[in-house]
Amino acid sequence: MTPITEVEGRRISLSNLEKVIYPASGFTKGEVLHYYAGTAGALLAHLVDRPLSFLRYPDGPDGQRFFTKNVLPGTPEWVRTAEVPRSEGPTRQILVQDLASLMWAANLVTEFHTPQWRAGAPGQADRLVLDLDPGPPATVVECCRAALWLRERLTADGFPVYAKTSGSKGLHLLVPLEPTPSERVSAYAKSLAVEAEKELPDLVVHRMTRSLRPGKVFVDFSQNAAAKTTAAPYTLRARAEPTVSTPVTWAEIEACEEPDRLVFSADDIAPRLRAHGDLLAPLINLNNARPLPARAAR
């Protein structure tokens, strides 16, 4: 029998709680749900009003993995959705607005991915993201070197800059913006990546071409496009271990000399939240939003 639980007055079916999702560590689906319940206070702030894409991996990271954006069959009527424009015509996507909808979605076993804009203003980005992806043998150590240069560059343009691990191999840099058309944000982000490659040619590449990337950090600016999404802060990732896309301090980035220094699992997050709070909370505060520099508006 599938257990039924009540969350904030909503009845939710939770299935296969003893199923091992992460075989390398024995981490079960029940532990996945426990993690999301315990992290909801921080996670929900970064999901609310953002139409979600789900990367589902119900049989673990070694099983079938698939992206879904459209509202899923069987979605409870109380789960909110939003109309999202697409080139082929509008569709509807799920919004996770509260603990009940978070637990329903977590039961699907999914990574949470969000666009850089909110449902009320499609294509009007309120944050900029740079995804720093190392090409082996480069690691997150090289990503940290690139991140420090990019932070200085963004600070020169008047931006506060925040960072999180991708939960995979790299780093994400995030900047709060006044709502700005995604195509302008993408153009500005590309200009930063090109400049970084020019200044750090032995470290950075701005093109996705695989042959250019070994030993370098690919500064992926493309996730600022309106149709693209990025792994949300605090989401579990479909990796061998239950790693998490984790906010980090700049002191941690400056001190990173070994790849394992910036790898965090589900069990690490509650202690980090107690110690630091949500390091990405300033992204939610509209008072921190900044306009693109005038030269980027052209």
TrEMBL record:
Matches recorded under InterPro entries: LigD_pol_dom (IPR014145), MtLigD_Pol-like (IPR033649), NHEJ_LigD (IPR052171)
GO molecular function: ligase activity
Entry superkingdom: Bacteria
Domain DNA ligase D polymerase: 28-279
Sorted UniProt keywords: Ligase
Alphabetical list of PANTHER family matching this protein: BIFUNCTIONAL NON-HOMOLOGOUS END JOINING PROTEIN LIGD
Protein name: ATP-dependent DNA ligase
Organism: Streptomyces alboniger
